[in-house]
Design goal:
Elements (H helix, E strand, L loop, with lengths): L2 H5 L2 H12 L4 E7 L2 E10 L4 E8 L1 H36 L5 H31 L7 E4 L1 H18 L3 E6 L5 E4 H17 L5 E9 L2 E8 L21 H7 L5 H11 L3 E6 L5 E8 L9
Helix pairs in contact: 3-4, 4-8, 5-6, 6-8
């Protein structure tokens, strides 16, 4: 891409202006002549010059799009046979099976449930990653959403001998999609219960400057520091054998991050082995747009 034609792109002018105001390099993507370029801009105050670096990422971007399309199509195609399998399993449960046959049926059912969960998570993540996804945002009482999820998971926590409680302070309304907020809370609470064997889980809601903090704290196994930067990658799991036993898909936290970013929020995690984990989500209040420092 020649520089002078590129210089006339409004996006490049905006990037250069941002670089002048920033203490470090800034980056954006530009489209020109059917190609896509990653542009890195830095302001060199000593020389009073700009340093611009262009990388052609057209093929990489197209490959990522094909991967996303494949995953979305795969999730769609798997739904029908899995629905059929689940239906016949329910029919077999009513049959007078031998103890051995009943054991085999439970194994099939458990793994089918895991597959259904994986397909649902793949479909949800594909929807969130789709370009131009429109959220149905409206002023929302987050306390009501969180309270409903906590009540729904109370029995599951009790079955594991865990406590599950909600601590909520008076909050401003948030500008959010109610369904996506419910999915966010479900994934965080489900994840906390899944990886906790003793103690319990606390969900807290507190007002913050320009928004609210939603935190889910567990007394579970905790996570080593080297794993924290990759926690929100799709299919990334810290303990693969444990994840297989508990039915984790490795997609829940990736879904959470997409929902948070789509709402203009941010997510943080604090954890250490043996001391549990805390996932904290900041969401802007209705009418607020800036993030906390």
């Amino acid at each position: 891409m020649q520089f002078w034609p590129a210089e006339r792109l409004p996006e490049l002018h905006e990037l250069v202006n941002l670089a002048r105001q920033s203490s470090g390099p800034v980056e954006c993507q530009l489209e020109k002549g059917g190609r896509v370029f990653s542009c890195l801009a830095s302001w060199l105050p000593g020389r009073r010059h700009y340093l611009l670096k262009f990388n052609d990422i057209t093929e990489v971007r197209e490959l990522n799009l094909r991967k996303k399309e494949f995953v979305a199509n795969l999730a769609h195609e798997l739904k029908t046979p899995l629905t059929s399998i689940s239906g016949f399993l329910e029919t077999l449960e009513e049959e007078n099976l031998s103890p051995e046959g009943r054991g085999y049926l439970e194994i099939i059912k458990r793994n089918t449930v895991r597959l259904v969960r994986l397909v649902e998570d793949l479909a949800r993540l594909s929807e969130l990653e789709e370009k131009g996804l429109e959220l149905e945002k409206a002023p929302l009482d987050l306390v009501g959403v969180v309270q409903a999820v906590v009540e729904a998971y109370r029995k599951e926590a009790s079955n594991k001998g865990l406590s599950l409680r909600l601590e909520a302070e008076p909050l401003p309304l948030v500008e959010a999609d109610a369904f996506q907020m419910e999915q966010l809370v479900i994934n965080l609470v489900d994840n906390a219960i899944r990886y906790t064997e003793q103690g319990g889980v606390v969900v807290s809601l507190k007002p913050a400057e320009g928004g609210v903090w939603l935190s889910v704290t567990d007394s579970g196994i905790g996570i080593s520091e080297e794993h924290l930067p990759r926690l929100f990658e799709r299919f990334y799991v810290v303990d693969k054998s444990r994840s297989r036993r508990t039915g984790g898909t490795g997609l829940g936290l990736s879904i959470v991050k997409h929902i948070v970013l789509a709402h203009g929020g941010k997510i943080e995690v604090r954890s250490s082995p043996g001391f549990g984990s805390t996932f904290s989500v900041w969401l802007p209040a209705a009418g607020a747009h800036s993030q906390p420092a």
